[in-house]
Amino acid sequence: AMIAEVEAELRRRLGTRIYGVDDETLEGVVGALLQARGLTFTVLEAGAGGEVLRRACKVAGFLGGEMGAAPLEASALLAKARNCCRLRQASWALGVSLFAAEGNNRMIITLARPEGDEVREFHFGGPPQMAPNWATNMALNLLRRRLTPDT
Questions:
Q1: Its pTM surpasses 0.90
Q2: Burial class (CB in 10 A: 0-12, 13-18, 19+), 106
Q3: Strand ranges (DSSP E) for the chain?
Q4: Rounded to whole angstroms, what are the CA distances from 142 to 4, 6, 9, 26, 127?
Q5: Is residue 97 a contact partner of residue 113, using CB atoms and an 8 Å limit?
Q6: CB 131 within 8 A of CB 103
Q7: 40 exposure class (CB count in 10 Å sphere: 0-12, 13-18, 19+)
Q8: 112, 93 contact by CB (below 8 A)
Q9: Does 23 or 18 have the greater pLDDT score?
Q10: CB 117 within 8 A of CB 109
Q11: 42-60 mean pLDDT
Q12: Do the Cβ atoms of 93 and 43 come closer than 8 Å?
């Protein structure tokens, strides 16, 4: 009760940027959104060391995926993600490619879905050993935002 007013103001300002509270995880929220819409997804991961697939396994609606050691550029990533989607008969395919380097990490996320494909590229600093976790968070959050109305 003591924080209700502050929480209400934060929700007003941040809207759908808030994905959960208390024990809710990004994986749990994405899974619930997928289930509510009767959708499934697959993952094509390249260069992130298995982190995306490891966390995707915790999401309801995940139908498996593929991992490559070397990162892929956007067109190859999207093509392989589409193929992964077709092979697993998933509704959507999430592609994540990570080019990790000290102070200059680059990530490409693709989302293949019947409504149209999406390709996003992000650059961020920080230690490369943290990049797989950040890439996974960004990818799952993009999926969450596409599943959430008005985002």
A1: no
A2: middle
A3: 41-46, 62-68, 92-99, 105-112, 118-124
A4: 28, 26, 24, 11, 22
A5: no
A6: no
A7: buried
A8: yes
A9: 23
A10: no
A11: 95
A12: yes
- Tokens read off for 123: 């650059």
Burial category of 39 from C-beta neighbours within 10 Å (exposed 0-12, middle 13-18, buried 19 and up): middle
**Residue 140: Cβ within 10 Å count:** 25
Tokens of 4: 């209700």
- Please tell me the distance from the alpha carbon of residue 108 to that of residue 14, in angstroms, as a whole number: 25
Question: By CB neighbour count within 10 A (0-12 exposed, 13-18 middle, 19+ buried), where does 64 fall?
Answer: middle
Question: pLDDT tens digits for 95-143?
Answer: 999 998 877 889 999 999 999 999 999 998 888 888 999 999 999 999 9
The amino acid sitting at 48 is A
- Of the CA atoms within 13 Å of residue 129, those in its CB half-sphere come to 0
**Burial (0-12, 13-18, 19+ Cβ within 10 Å), 5:** exposed
Is residue 62 classed exposed, middle or buried when 0-12, 13-18 and 19+ CB atoms within 10 A define those classes?
A: buried
